[in-house]
Amino acid sequence: MEVNFMLKKFSVKNFKNFKNKLVLDLSKVRDYGFNSHLIQKNLINKLLIYGPNNSGKSNLGAAIMDITCHLTDNSGMDNLLYINGDYVDDKVEFSYEFFLANKNVVYTYSKNNQRRLLYEELKEDDKLLFKYNYVTNKYENNIKEAQTIDIQKRSNKDMSVLKFIYNNTLYWEQDSTVKLLMDFVNNMLWFRSLKSNEFIGVMANGEDLNDFVINNRLLTKFEKFLKECGQDYSLCEMDGNGRKVIGVKYQNYKARFDLVASTGTKSLWLFFYWMNRTKNISFVFLDEFDAFYHYDLSSFILKYVNDKTEFQSILTSHNTYLISNEIMRPDCYAILDDGKISSFADSTNKTIRQAHNLEKMMLGGEFEK
Predict the structure, then answer these.
(1) What span, in angstroms and rounded, lies between the C-alpha atoms of 306 and 328?
(2) Is the pLDDT of residue 60 over 80?
(3) 317 within 8 A of 289, measured Cβ to Cβ
(4) How far apart, in whole angstroms, are the C-alpha atoms of residue 212 and residue 202?
(5) How many Cβ atoms from other residues are within 10 Å of residue 74's Cβ?
(6) Does residue 206 have a pLDDT over 70?
(7) What burial letters (b/e) apply to 75-89, b meaning 16+ CB within 10 Å?
(8) pTM here?
(9) Predicted pLDDT at 291
(10) How confident is the model over 252-280, as a mean pLDDT?
(11) pLDDT value at residue 3
(12) Is 33 helix (H, G, I), strand (E, B) or coil?
């Protein structure tokens, strides 16, 4: 499936452990002749980030997803200790460059906490569409569909002006930059299952995983998915204290799936839920995706996500066994450490070929700068 909406470049400064400006550039594509499906519109569509513990992999995901906190009504987690502890300037600066239907769209803003904006600006192909300074109240609006919007009518002065404009404009052209941006951001998703169903982005309405699978008639599909993952369960519906739940059929009895499944299998259940919950995901950040998986299962899940070319994805890991040109390619692997991020391809002066052992090269320090 062709992708027309992607994140092209992202930067953040003074956020959590990123004191200095960190830049993630997804346009730095090399001319490798293998695993070309990982590249869409000459942008990296699938990225796997490595980094030691405490390098900031989770913080990078929180930073990228920060845009959803003020432009959408979607659920998410609160970011504590928002500003870097050694800050010089008490504001966090964000910049997003998007490829949206052949337009180059740049949205920049700054905040002094997760909910309070200081500045917003939107450009399309270097043309200023909108900017607002929350400190000086200086305002410029060149959005053609929104020329009559009175931003002083905002009841909540901390509300994003761009969000207010979008919500209060009666009609948007289908190719409007503002609409394309809001559609993309509303369908961004970050999730992990290290402790519980933690997520940022796409609204989940607190629905139960049993209810989701059963009510959407996905039991057979879920059983097939588990079998593909090497989990041989015979699933069924059963009563669970007056409500339908997923059960496992054994020779002599049935048992509730959530009581017999391992931690890793429950993680697969959550993964299945998010991959099937919405058909319009634009971007996924899957944090520590292989925390409960052995090698074969980790490899399967990574390939499963990589085959979903209809959305852009970033996964994080600290395990090296997934580093292989058979799975991905050097410009789709990146290292995050010491507040900097760079692809394998940009971290060495050597020419990397398909036959090279990437894991051996990494363990040998080849990609250290």
Answers:
(1) 9
(2) yes
(3) yes
(4) 15
(5) 19
(6) no
(7) ebeebeebbbeeeee
(8) 0.93
(9) 81
(10) 89
(11) 81
(12) coil
Determine the 3-state secondary structure of 60 from DSSP. Answer: helix
Please state the rounded mean pLDDT for residues 15-43: 96
Question: Is 358 in contact with 323 (CB distance < 8 Å)?
Answer: yes
Give the pairing type, strands 46-50 and 333-337.
parallel
Structure tokens at 331: 């410009």
Token pair of 342 as six digits: 């760079």
Query: In sequence order, what are the residues at sequence separation of 6 or more whose Cβ sits closer than 8 angstroms to the Cβ of residue 253?
Result: none
Q: What is the pLDDT of residues 68-92, one digit of tens each?
A: 999 998 766 677 789 998 888 889 9
Question: In the predicted model, what is the mean pLDDT of residues 303-330?
Answer: 94
Place of tokens 């200095």: 20
Tokens 């490798």 -> residue: 32
Q: Alpha helices, DSSP H only, in 91-199?
A: 161-168, 177-186
E-assigned strand segments in the chain? 5-13, 22-25, 39-40, 43-44, 46-50, 92-100, 103-113, 116-124, 127-133, 139-141, 188-192, 198-201, 235-239, 244-249, 254-256, 283-286, 312-317, 333-337, 340-343
For residue 12, what are its two tokens? 């953040």
Q: Running DSSP on this structure, what letter comes out for residue 49?
A: E
- What per-residue confidence (pLDDT) applies to 32? 96
